[in-house]
Amino acid sequence: MGMTQEEVEGVLIRPLGRLMQTIGSSIADAQRAMDENSIAIQKAIEQAIDNGEIEYDIQAPWYHFPEVDIELKMALSMTEKEEVDKKGRVRGYMPVILAAPLNATYKNAYNYDVRGSSQLKAKIASIPPATKLSE
């Protein structure tokens, strides 16, 4: 059963900022999962040392994403969001860029010509944590 245009829009089309935020959050969630795994392994090692099961000190491996390259092919469109004051009057319009990933569902629902697609490239890099300033 095919999706209606409203269903396609509800699932695929998002403001570009929200799309980038979701990608960044997904990467952070994956990093957190790897960190939690390393912490659990280190706790198990330390418990094994305390119980005498291991006679030497070893450290759990730690993994991280030193950088992530993202390349998205998408359809971009622009719309406006009303800016309303406290009295409910429209005072202006804020432009909003919408992004939809190019896949078969979007292409078929909108009869979209993929030659007009946009490409977004982003790099998310790991940086050392900020050090605490001493007084």
Brief write-up:
This protein has 135 residues and is of the alpha+beta class. It has helices spanning 5-12, 16-50, 104-110; strands at residues 14-15, 67-84, 90-101, 118-125. The protein has one domain (5-125).
Total domain count: 1
Mean pLDDT rating: 79
- Low-confidence runs: 7-11
Percentage of residues in DSSP E strands: 25-35%
Secondary-structure content class = alpha+beta
Radius of gyration: 24 Å
Order of helices and strands: HEHEEHE
Oligomer state of the chains in this structure: single chain
Percent helix: 25-40%
Global geometry: elongated
Number of strands: 4
**Largest sheet: number of strands, sense, barrel closure:** 4 strands, antiparallel
Salient structural properties:
alpha+beta; 3 helices
Which SSEs are present, and which pair or pack?
Elements: H1 5-12, E1 14-15, H2 16-50, E2 67-84, E3 90-101, H3 104-110, E4 118-125
Antiparallel strand pairs: 1-3, 2-3, 2-4
